Structures are given as C-alpha cells and as structure tokens.
Description:
Layout: H1 18-40, H2 53-56, H3 65-88, H4 94-105, H5 109-121
Amino acid sequence: xxxxxxxxxxxxxxxxxxxxxxxxxxxxxxATIALERRDEAVPSAPQKGDAPAEAKRSKRAPLTREVRALxxxxxxxxxxxxxxxKRTGKQVSPTLRAAVQAFKxxxxxxxxxxxxxxxxxxxxxxW
Length: 127
C-alpha cells in the first residue's frame, strides 16, 4: 500500500518540496504580520446605520489569526489560478479540487501545501 495520503476522491495529494514549504511558510508569516497590524489598528468610528456589534457577531467561534492568515494565502493562490484559467481556458484539475476541499475541511499549513504544489507546478507563483 502507498504511504501517500489519499483525499476522499481517492486521488493522491501532491507533496511539497522543502523549498516550497519554506516559501509558503514565509508567505503565511507575512500574512500573519499584516493581520496583526490590521487588528492592532485603531478601529474607526461606527458609521451611521451600522448594526450594533452584537448583531454582527456570528454564533461561530472567531477564527484564529493563524487560520485567517492561511485563508489569505489560499485566496492569493486561488486568485492566481483563476487568472491562469481565464487566460488559458483550462478547467480546475481534479487534484487541485481535492486539495482545496481538504484545506477547507482542515485549514492548516499541511493542507495548504498541496494547493501550492499544484499552482507552483504551473509556474504561477512569483514568491
């Protein structure tokens, strides 16, 4: 039996090289720093017509800064791939679709890496 992890659809999850892992980790760290700066900024005064703060809160637990940073990097990868698909007319590969689904189920650096592998294999990453 293979020691590669299989997503629910039975497709092998691409493995990231140490160099790509470091690049993605640095990108997540940059996103974390940006979020810290934004979170520490003085909030603006409420705008007229804004709903009370209590009404805006969802019943879900707030996301950690780490998850928010991971999602920010995921959005960047998604934007780059979307631009690629618009230029080329290609569809999303089943491998990428499975990697994205795995990330959505459990947003971690480990689950983000297969998405980055697919995007990097297409030579779309500039960082």
